[in-house]
Amino acid sequence: MSARAKLALAVSAVLLVVPWLLPSFYVGIFAYAGIYALVAVGLVLLLQAGQISLGQGAFMGLGAYGSALVARAYGIDTMITLIMSVCATALVAALIGFITLRLRGHYLPLATLAYGIALASLFTAWHEVTGGASGLDKIPALRLFGFEITDDRLYTQLIWIVTLLAVLGLSRLRTSRTGRAIATLEAHDGLAQAFGVDTTVLRVKVFVFSAVLAALGGALYVHLLRFVSPSPFGLLTSFKLLIMAVVGGPMSAAGGVVGALAMESAQWTLQDVLARWGLSGNLEVIVFGVILVVMLLKWPQGLWPAVEKFLPKPSLRSREGHGLPRSVLTGNRSEVLLRLDGIGIRFGGLQALEGVSMELKRGEFVGLIGPNGAGKTTLFSIISGLQRQTAGRVTLFGEPLSAGHTLVQRGMARTFQHVQLMSDLSVIENVALGAYCRTRAGFVRGLFALDAEENRRALACARAALERVGLAAEADLAAGSLPLGKQRIVEIARALVADPQILLLDEPAAGLRFSEKLTLVKILRQLQAEHVTILLVEHDMELVMGCVERLVVLDRGKIIAEGSPKDVQANPAVISAYLGGSRDKAA
């Protein structure tokens, strides 16, 4: 067991013992902190996926009312009522998520605010069922397997067991195949799709799981209090939960626990101090607002990074195993892998590409060059399925181009013009994302660590790729700490882990030093020897001319030349495009 695991186990033991050491009054406060921590942990996962929800209080209410109503009506084992209410909330969340998670920017939190208000209003308006503003009483105590839990200390311990299990599960998920994919959702949607992630489905899964934790928290809350009313599940609670997640820190599930403990402690301390000063009203809400502003300005990553600095760093090497099998490619140079016929795309009144036709054959090394603004990156985005052309047809291995997230499974990987790495993850975790299309473990298996063997193989494959490109020594460093040149090499390693038949390289030499360019050339020649088909966009003409077999030249969205590097260099149209002769005369 690692030092980090031993420390986590010790902290968990302390949290489970605390209810038996506190005075009776504080036991209840500690129980509420555990419930809020459970919901905040789910919000932390949402924040990691780039989603902001202002409706978690409403999901708590669905769980609370669902469990309370079934328990009161049928008197069945409350363990069953918890499961039923959580499942019902998951269905509602899946429907809401499918509708709202297509929104981006500030529209998503506004949408969650709207359904949060709507659900909270439903709890009040549907008084025949929910009891309206007066609520419902005589809710049975929690009963598990025939044993009724009426001792507040035992119940509080149960709450913290559930919360700590959620933290453990999400900590395991973060280092899994699915966790690496979730880390891309906030800022790198195109990257996620390029390596096989169905981003819409994954966002819905994250949203539903967050709602499940909220519903479970609400159900535990209602059987603790044995009374339910709409007031604890309103908009103010949703804001409070979001503040907990932000204050604790969205980088780790443990941040939800830290935030909940910090905010609950602050709330009760402030209430006591304000009462001593003779002040009334919810003045602590104002203080919370000030705390949130200060946190966002001074510590945008929350409190958890400050705590984590004193913890031993985790190592992924111990989790590695044998690598994934690689494809053996044939040398049939006549086989056409990728064909473009009359590709065109228009952005409003701008014709970015027009009538572009070309082929890539097995094992070819083709360079795509042209002046800035010629349309090279746009063409790359069309080939990799991230953009749809308005005219023409693209076929991959003889079949029409499909959705972007499926192309890597068909044998095509790419790098990006602007480096796209998850800066807070280690280098090896970034590279392991390339194995997403070659592995199968999903959300649930990652949550319960049932993907351990597969994950070890993916990490071993990632480390082998880093050794191949000369970055094995940097494997455990944060990707954001590397210089730009090495970050580009990391992107190439990530693409290699996908085991592609076709590799699209978008300006891989930009920012590289001379020694790094030599490493890049060595890698490219090795790939060519392995019959990998390469399409290279690059402005470094010396590198291009020294590597490629064939050049395609774009200018103003059209192909103006195609042939060997020597023939293209002598082409008058190419010389004019690069030197601007015709345009200078026109000016």
The gross shape turns out to be elongated
Strand content: 5-15%
Mean pLDDT: 89
- Secondary-structure-based class equals alpha/beta
Distance between the termini: 72 Å
Largest sheet: 6 strands, mixed
| Rg over alpha carbons | 28 Å
Q: What is the count of β-strands?
A: 12
What topology, given as strand order, has the largest sheet? 8-9-10-5-11-12
Q: What does this protein look like?
A:
- α20 (514-529) links the parallel β9 (502-506) and β10.
- The radius of gyration is 28 Å and the shape is elongated.
- Helices cover 54% and strands 11% of the residues.
- The model is unreliable at 582-587 (pLDDT under 50).
- A 6-stranded mixed β-sheet has the order 8-9-10-5-11-12, sandwiched between helices. The protein has a 4-stranded antiparallel β-sheet with strand order 4-3-6-7, covered by helices on one side. Strands 1-2 form a two-stranded antiparallel sheet.
- It contains 24 helices and 12 strands.
- The chain is an alpha/beta fold.
Structural key phrases:
11% strand, four-stranded antiparallel sheet, alpha/beta, six-stranded mixed sheet, 587 residues, 24 helices
Care to give the gist of this entry?
The chain has 587 residues and is of the alpha/beta class. It has helices at 3-17, 24-48, 56-74, 78-100, 107-125, 127-130, 152-174, 177-184, 189-194, 199-225, 235-248, 254-276, 283-298, 304-308, 376-383, 427-432, 443-447, 452-468, 484-497, 514-529, 541-547, 565-569, 572-579, 581-586, and strands at residues 143-144, 147-148, 336-347, 350-361, 365-369, 391-396, 399-400, 412-414, 502-506, 533-537, 550-555, 558-563.
